[in-house]
UniProtKB/TrEMBL annotation, chain A:
Residues where ATP binds: 101
EC number(s) recorded for this UniProt protein: 2.7.12.2
Protein kinase domain boundaries: 72-333
GO molecular function, one term: ATP binding
Reaction equation(s) it catalyzes: L-tyrosyl-[protein] + ATP = O-phospho-L-tyrosyl-[protein] + ADP + H(+); L-seryl-[protein] + ATP = O-phospho-L-seryl-[protein] + ADP + H(+); L-threonyl-[protein] + ATP = O-phospho-L-threonyl-[protein] + ADP + H(+)
Source organism: Tahibacter soli
Pfam families: Pkinase
Family annotation (SUPFAM superfamilies): Protein kinase-like (PK-like)
The entry's keywords: ATP-binding, Kinase, Nucleotide-binding, Transferase
Annotated protein name in UniProt: mitogen-activated protein kinase kinase
UniProt family annotation: Belongs to the protein kinase superfamily. STE Ser/Thr protein kinase family. MAP kinase kinase subfamily.
CDD domains in UniProt: STKc_PknB_like
Length: 537, 216
C-alpha cells in the first residue's frame, strides 16, 4: 500500500466519521490519486446532504417565523446589502434551513429576468458554488434561496489573520477555479468574484456565493450598471464590456493576489486611474511582495491579471492546472506536460494500427491513457478530457524516425515528439515497444491534456529516413511544455462550451504533410491521424 | 472486541461522528444476524419474517422520506410504499443471493428505489397542483435528495455505487444513507465497529474512484 492509499483511506474514514473533510490532505495527493481525491470531495458533500435528510430538527416548530415567503418560513435577517436583504429561512419541503435573498422589484420585466436567471443558476450544482434551490416572485419582491453556508468570508479571514499561507491560497484558487468552471460551463458568469463573496465553511470547503444578485438587471432599459467592486474589475469592464469568463478569471486573480499580499494589485481613486494602472500593469510583482513564493505559482496568478483577455489563461480550468502544477514537488511534475493531447479515428489509414500496405515500413501505434485504474487503450472514438495523461506505444519493423504533433488548427502544431532532453531520440530502433514521450532521466513522462477544446488531433509520422521538412518545422514550432515552462500553453479557445467551434481552416500542416508524401502513401512512410473528441463540455 | 459485542445490545457505544441522539433506530443486537434470519425466512418461519420487517422498516421509511417527491410524501403513502417494497423483497427472498453481510440492505434499497421510481412515474401522470416554479427542478417531481444534490450528480452517484460489490454497497448505504452507527453496522455484518470503520473507508475510496466527476 502506498502512502497515498493510506491518505485516501484516512480521508475516507473522516467522511464516514462525519468529521470535517481534510482538504489539506486532499490537496497533497499525488497526481495519480487526484481523480479519487475529487471523488472523495464529492462524496463528502453527498454524505452531508444525506445526513441532513436523516436529521429531524424541531426548529420548524420551535422557531417562530417572522413572515412567510413562497412557502418558506422566514426566521431572521442575516444582512442587508446594496441589492437587497439576506434572511435565514426554513424550507419545510426540504426540511432544511436556507439562505433567502429578497429584493424589491418595480416592474414585471425585472422579475421575469430574475426568475430566468435563477433557473439557470439552479442548474449549477458543484461543491464550490453555492446551490440554488428555488426562486419566486411575490408581493412586489423577488426572492432566491440557496443552501445556507455556515462559515466566514475570505474578507473576514483576511481582516483577522492577514495574508494567508501560499499553500492555502493555492488550495482556495484551485477550489474557486473548479467552481467557476462549473458556472462558465452553463454559459453563465459570476460577475462579482471578491473576498466578501467567497465563504470558507467550517469544514474547509470554499464556496463561491452571492451571484444571482451580482448582476443588476435593468428595468425597461438595457442599461446594466457596473455592479462589481472596482478593484476586481478587469480593464475591459472599465471600458464598458459586460462580464465574461475572462473577467471572472481576472477577478479571481485579484482575489488571490490580495490573499497573498493583503493588498489589491492596483489602488486608485477613480475608475479612470484604475484603468490606466491596470493597462500599465503598474502593480507590485507578487514575488516582490512575497519573495518565498514559487515562480510558477506567481506566474499562474499574474497571468490571470493580464490586461489583454487573450493573454490570460485559456480558461479557469487552464488556470487550475497551472496552479496545481505550481504546487507539486518537481519530482512529481514529471508526469505533467502542459500540452493537450487527443486522438481520433485515423483519417488516412482508417484505424490506429497502421496497415502494412508496404512491407518496407510497418508500424503499430496506439494511444493509452494512464488513469487511476491503470492503463487504458484509447479505442476509436474514445473521449478524453482535461487532465488526462496520454502515452503513445509504438513499434516498427525498421529503424524509424518518428514525429508526433498535436494539431490544434493553428498554423504551427505543437511538437510532442521528439523533445529536447527527453529519451529516446530519433531514430527509434526496430522490434522495441517504445513508450512515448519517453523519460526525463528516470522519470516516465506522459502528455497531459491541459486545455479544453472540441477535439484533439494527433499526427504521427513515421519514416524510414529523416524528414528534413518536418525537422525544420520542429525547430520553430512550440514544444510540449516541460514542468519548467509549463505555463506556456497552447492557444486554444476560451472556455465557452455553449457555442460550437467553427470549422477550422486547414492550415499549412496539411500542406506540409502532403509535401512530405503522406498523401501518396509511399512505402517508407506512415502518416497516422488520431482524433479524440473532448468529453463534454 | 468480544466485550463490545456484548454491550452492543444497549447500543450506548456511540459512533465516531457527532450525532447520536438524532435517530432512535437501533438494530437490536440480541437478535440474530440478518443472514440467519434470511435463512429462517426461506425455511418459512413467520417470526423470522416479522423480525426482519421490524429490523428494516424504520430505516427504509426514513430513507424513503428523502427520496420521494413532495407530492408523494404524505405519511400514509410513504408507509405503504416502504411496506410494499419490503413485502416484495421478502416474497422474492429466494432469489436474493447473499454476497456477504450487509448486501441484504443494499438489495432492499434497490427494490425500494425501483418502487420510488414507479411511484414518481405514476404521480407524473396525475395532474397535480402547480409548484412555485417547476422549471427550477431538474425533473418535474424532484425528491428532496434530487433537489439538494441535483439530478445529474445523483445519477452519477447511483451509477458508481452500482459498480461496487454488493457487500461494499451495503456498507456505504448503511453508513452514509441510513446513518447507522459503526456498532449498529457491526451488529448487522457480524464484525467489530473498528473493523467496520476501516471497511467503510475502503469502500468509500472504491466508490470515489468509480465516481466519474461531472466537472473538473
Amino acid at each position: 500500500m502506498t502512502g497515498d492509499d493510506k491518505d485516501l483511506e484516512r480521508i475516507a474514514a473522516g467522511i464516514a466519521d462525519d468529521a470535517a473533510l481534510d482538504w489539506r490532505a486532499l490537496a497533497k495527493l499525488d497526481p495519480q490519486s487526484t481523480d479519487t481525491g475529487d471523488g472523495l470531495r464529492e462524496l463528502s458533500q453527498l454524505a452531508n446532504i444525506f445526513r441532513s435528510l436523516q436529521l429531524k430538527p424541531e426548529r420548524a416548530a420551535s422557531v417562530k417565523a417572522q413572515f412567510r415567503f413562497a412557502g418558506l418560513d422566514v426566521i431572521e435577517k442575516l444582512g442587508q446589502g446594496a441589492h437587497g436583504e439576506v434572511w435565514r429561512a426554513y424550507d419545510p419541503m426540504l426540511d432544511q434551513e436556507v439562505a433567502l435573498k429578497l429584493k424589491r422589484v418595480d416592474c414585471d420585466e425585472l422579475s421575469h429576468q430574475f426568475l430566468a436567471e435563477a433557473r439557470r443558476l439552479a442548474k449549477v450544482r458543484q461543491q464550490n458554488v453555492v446551490s440554488v434551490y428555488g426562486a419566486a416572485a411575490q408581493d412586489g419582491r423577488v426572492g432566491l434561496w440557496t443552501e445556507l453556508v455556515r462559515g466566514r468570508s475570505l474578507a473576514d479571514v483576511l481582516a483577522e489573520q492577514g495574508p494567508l499561507p501560499a499553500e492555502e491560497v493555492a488550495q482556495i484558487g484551485i477550489e474557486l477555479c473548479r467552481g467557476l468552471a462549473a458556472v462558465h460551463r452553463h454559459g453563465l458568469t459570476h460577475g462579482d468574484v471578491k473576498a466578501e463573496n467567497v465563504l470558507r465553511e467550517v469544514s474547509g470547503r470554499v464556496v463561491l456565493a452571492d451571484f444571482g444578485t451580482a448582476r443588476e438587471l435593468g428595468c425597461g432599459t438595457r442599461f446594466e450598471p457596473i455592479s462589481g467592486t472596482r478593484h476586481y474589475l478587469a480593464p475591459e469592464m472599465l471600458d464598458g464590456e459586460p462580464s465574461s469568463a475572462a473577467t471572472d478569471q481576472y477577478a479571481l486573480g485579484v482575489l488571490l493576489y490580495r490573499l497573498l499580499t493583503g493588498q489589491y494589485p492596483y489602488a486608485a481613486d477613480d475608475l479612470d486611474a484604475m484603468r490606466s494602472a491596470e493597462l500599465a500593469e503598474a502593480r507590485k510583482p507578487l514575488r516582490e511582495a512575497r519573495p518565498t513564493l514559487s515562480r510558477a505559482f506567481a506566474r499562474a496568478i499574474e497571468r490571470a491579471l493580464a490586461p489583454d483577455p487573450a493573454r490570460r489563461h485559456a480558461g479557469v480550468l487552464a488556470m487550475l492546472v497551472a496552479i496545481e502544477n505550481s504546487q507539486r514537488p518537481h519530482r512529481l511534475n514529471g508526469l505533467h506536460w502542459a500540452l493537450a493531447a487527443a486522438i481520433v479515428a485515423a483519417i488516412a489509414a482508417g484505424g490506429y494500427a497502421l496497415r502494412p500496405v508496404a512491407p518496407q515500413l510497418n508500424v503499430d501505434a496506439a494511444f493509452y491513457r494512464d488513469g487511476a485504474r491503470g492503463r487504458e487503450r484509447l479505442v476509436d472514438g474514445a473521449t478524453i478530457e482535461l487532465g488526462d495523461r496520454l502515452r503513445l506505444e509504438l513499434s516498427s519493423n525498421r529503424r524509424t524516425w518518428l514525429y508526433v504533433l498535436n494539431d490544434d488548427g493553428s498554423i504551427a502544431p505543437t511538437v510532442l515528439f521528439p523533445l529536447p532532453g527527453i529519451q529516446p531520440v530519433n531514430p527509434l530502433g526496430h522490434g522495441v515497444r517504445w513508450q512515448l514521450p519517453g523519460k526525463d532521466g528516470l522519470t516516465e513522462l506522459s502528455w497531459q491534456v491541459d486545455a479544453e477544446a472540441e477535439r484533439e488531433t494527433f499526427v504521427v509520422v513515421a519514416s524510414a529516413t529523416p524528414l528534413a521538412a518536418l525537422e525544420d518545422g520542429i525547430a520553430q514550432w512550440r514544444h510540449a511544455a516541460t514542468p519548467d515552462n509549463a505555463l506556456v500553453m497552447r492557444g486554444v479557445g476560451r472556455l465557452v462550451p455553449a457555442t460550437p467551434e467553427p470549422v477550422r481552416q486547414r492550415g499549412s500542416l496539411d500542406a506540409l504533410l502532403g509535401r512530405i508524401g503522406c498523401d501518396s502513401a509511399p512505402t517508407e512512410l506512415r502518416c497516422l491521424h488520431f482524433v479524440f473528441p473532448h468529453k463534454n463540455p | 472486541m468480544g466485550s463490545h459485542m456484548g454491550v452492543a445490545g444497549v447500543v450506548r457505544v456511540l459512533p465516531f461522528g457527532r450525532r447520536e441522539s438524532a435517530r432512535p433506530i437501533v438494530v437490536s443486537p440480541a437478535a440474530e444476524p440478518t443472514e440467519v434470519l434470511i435463512r429462517r425466512v426461506r425455511a418459512g418461519e413467520n417470526p423470522a419474517r416479522d423480525a426482519l420487517v421490524r429490523r428494516f422498516l424504520p430505516l427504509l421509511r426514513q430513507w424513503a422520506h428523502g427520496r420521494l417527491p413532495r407530492a408523494a410524501r404524505d405519511l400514509h403513502e410513504t408507509e405503504d410504499l416502504v411496506q410494499l417494497a419490503l413485502m416484495r423483497a421478502l416474497k422474492q427472498i429466494n432469489s436474493f443471493e447473499s454476497e456477504g453481510p450487509g448486501s441484504f440492505l443494499a438489495y432492499l434499497r434497490q427494490i425500494l428505489l425501483n418502487q420510488v421510481r414507479d411511484e414518481v412515474r405514476r404521480l407524473m401522470r396525475r395532474p397535480e397542483s402547480s409548484e412555485i416554479d417547476p422549471e427550477l427542478a431538474d425533473t418535474e417531481l424532484p425528491s428532496p435528495v434530487e433537489q439538494l444534490v441535483g439530478h445529474e450528480r445523483l445519477r452519477a452517484y447511483e451509477a458508481a455505487l452500482a459498480s461496487l460489490p454488493k457487500r461494499q454497497q451495503g456498507l456505504i448505504v448503511m453508513r452514509l444513507e441510513f446513518g447507522m452507527s459503526y456498532p449498529e453496522i457491526a451488529a448487522e455484518v457480524a464484525s467489530s465497529p473498528d473493523a467496520v470503520r476501516v471497511m467503510v473507508a475502503r469502500a468509500l475510496v472504491q466508490l470515489a474512484s468509480a465516481l466519474k466527476p461531472l466537472q473538473a
